[in-house]
What does this fold into?
Amino acid sequence: MQMTRGMRLKQAKAYVAEKLGCAVADLADPIAMHDLRRDLGLGRIPVQELTYPTHAGAMEAKFRIAEVLGVPINSVARFQECAGLSGSRPGGAV
It folds into this structure.
C-alpha cells in the first residue's frame, strides 16, 4: 500500500486492517493472522498444510489478496496472461 497508493506506514496499516476487517494490532499477531488468512481464503504462507488441502495455496492466495485489498499484483496479472485467463479481476489485475 505504501508503494501502490503512496500511503505512509500508519495509513497503509489502517487501510489493510479495514479491508481485512481486523484491528491494526492483529496485523502483527501471527495467530490472529493465521485464522484471518484461513477465513478469507488468503492462504497461509509459506507452508502448505496437509490438514487443509482445500485451502488456498500460494498463487491462489495472491489472487485472493488482490481481490480483498483491491490492488493490482504483478504476478497475478502475469499468471493470468500466461495462462490465457480472460476477464477483469478485482484489484486491477487483468
Observations:
- The chain is about 50% helix and 0% strand.
- Residues 2-92 form one domain.
